[in-house]
Design brief:
This protein is an alpha/beta fold. About 40% of the residues lie in helices and about 15% in strands. It holds the Pfam family Abhydrolase_6.
Length: about 230
C-alpha cells in the first residue's frame, strides 16, 4: 500500500499549486490535496475551523502516518495538526509557512476588483514575476470580485496572525523539512531560521532566486530536495 501524502495550499492557493509535486510523486504516494474551506460560513475561529476540517478529512480517508506538506497558510494548518496528532504524521514539510510572522499584504485588498493591482500583488509572491501566469492572476481576481470571499480571506488572515506557534514548536519531534525561498517577501528568511531553531528535529534548505512558493517557482529543485528528505 502506498504511503499517503497530504498537500495543503495557502490563503490564495489552489490545487494547481501542487502540480509539479503530484506529477513527480503520484506513482509512489497516495496523494491528497484537500481544498481548504476558507470561504465557508461558520462560527469558529477561522484557523481552528481549517484544522478541524483537516482532522475530519484524515479520519474520513483513514490516513495514517502521512507526509504532510504545507505552503503559507497550509503550513500553519499542518503545524497545528501535527502538534495535536503526531501519530498521524510521519514527516512534516513547511514552505513559506505562517505561524511566526507573515507580511500578508494580499489579505486586505484595498483595491478589490482592480485587475492590474491583483496582478501586481500576485507577482509579489514570486521572485520571478513571470511565474504569476495569466491563469493564476485570473483565479485570484475572481476571488476578489466576491465581497463575501474577500471578507473570509481577511478574517482568515487575521486569525493566522493571532495564532503564534512559538510555544508549541519545541514540543514537536516529527522530522521536519523547511524549504524556503531566499527572496520570500511574505514569510522572510528570518522566519525560516526561527522555525529551524525552534523545531528540534528540523532541516532547513534555502533556495536562491525564489519567493514564497518554491514548489511552483522551482518545482524540479523542490522535488529533488523533498525526494532526498523522504528517503532518509
Amino acid at each position: 500500500m502506498k504511503q499517503s501524502m497530504i498537500l495543503l495550499h495557502g490563503l490564495f492557493g489552489g490545487l494547481s499549486n501542487w502540480d509539479g509535486v503530484v506529477q513527480h510523486f503520484e506513482s509512489r504516494y497516495d496523494i491528497h490535496i484537500p481544498l481548504l474551506p476558507i470561504f465557508d460560513y461558520h462560527l469558529q475561529d477561522n484557523l481552528e475551523y481549517l484544522v478541524s476540517f483537516l482532522e475530519k478529512y484524515v479520519h474520513q480517508h483513514q490516513l495514517e502516518q502521512s507526509v504532510v506538506i504545507g505552503n503559507s497558510l497550509g503550513g500553519h494548518v499542518a503545524i497545528l495538526f501535527t502538534h495535536r496528532h503526531p501519530d498521524k504524521v510521519s514527516r512534516l514539510v513547511l514552505t513559506g509557512s505562517s505561524g511566526l510572522y507573515e507580511n500578508n499584504s494580499l489579505g486586505t485588498f484595498p483595491k478589490r476588483g482592480n485587475y492590474e493591482y491583483i496582478r501586481e500583488r500576485v507577482a509579489y509572491t514570486f521572485y520571478d514575476p513571470a511565474t504569476a501566469s495569466d491563469a493564476l492572476v485570473e483565479e485570484v481576481f475572481q476571488i476578489t470580485r466576491d465581497r463575501l470571499k474577500c471578507l473570509r480571506i481577511v478574517q482568515t488572515a487575521k486569525s493566522a496572525q493571532r495564532n503564534y506557534v512559538t510555544a508549541i514548536l519545541p514540543e514537536m519531534q516529527t522530522p521536519t523539512l523547511l524549504i524556503w525561498g531566499e527572496e520570500d517577501k511574505i514569510a522572510p528568511p528570518d522566519v525560516a531560521r526561527e522555525f529551524h531553531e525552534l523545531l528540534p528535529n528540523s532541516e532547513l534548505i534555502m533556495l536562491p532566486a525564489c519567493g514564497h512558493a518554491p514548489m511552483m517557482e522551482l518545482p524540479d529543485r523542490f522535488n529533488e530536495i523533498l525526494e532526498t528528505f523522504l528517503i532518509k
